[in-house]
Amino acid sequence: MKIKKAASRAHPPRDKRTRRALIEHVHPAVIEHEAKRAADVQLRVADAITRFAGSMQFVYIHAIGFALWMIFVEASPWPTLTLVVSLEAIFLSTFVMIGQNRQGDFARRKADHDYKAQTVELHHNTELTQLIHALTVEIHAAVVASHARSGSGPSDAESPGHAGQVNPAAS
């Protein structure tokens, strides 16, 4: 943790989005998604409409508006009210589908990013495991050689694992 903080202070990221990801621990796909949404006016409008349509204010305004319409505006409000509600439902369902498409796209980009990051991490872990194995073999060889020179300790025939176990390959 201290190394990562020191490294980030030594070479601070120049990109604001990268800096935000490091400071707030925000997923890079989220930052990219927010930047894309902020850059497109149509997407911002769709977000605002969807946000409002999903609120209780929307429900209250419609309940009051429909009640006033039925009481004061028309004697037989049903045909016109049905038309208005149907058109509103068509547009709102479109905004819901826009939101679902956006969420699906975001989930795909996040999954792609996670897959790439995990693949890199797996590669690094594999390299580290191979290096640790190579170091273990070298240390074992050095210990066996040291003991052979001094005349004490395990012989070359013993395995590096547990004392007293004979390595069949060395026999």
Can you give keywords for this protein?
171 residues; 6 helices; 78% helix; disordered N terminus
Structure description:
Helices cover 78% and strands 0% of the residues. Residues 1-10 have low confidence and may be disordered. It is mostly helical.
In short:
With 171 residues, the protein is mainly alpha-helical. Helices cover 78% and strands 0% of the residues.
Strand percent estimate: under 5%
Shape: rod-shaped
Count the strands? 0
Structural class: mainly alpha
- Mean pLDDT comes to 78
Alpha carbon gap, first and last residue: 47 Å
Q: Which bin fits the share of residues in helices?
A: over 70%
Could you state the order of secondary-structure elements as H and E?
HHHHHH
Number of helices: 6
Round the Cα radius of gyration to an integer and report it. 33 Å
For the report, how would you describe the main beta sheet? none
- Uncertain ranges: 1-10
Write the layout of secondary structure elements.
Blueprint: H1 2-10, H2 16-24, H3 28-39, H4 41-53, H5 56-73, H6 78-150
Helix pairs in contact: 3-6, 4-6
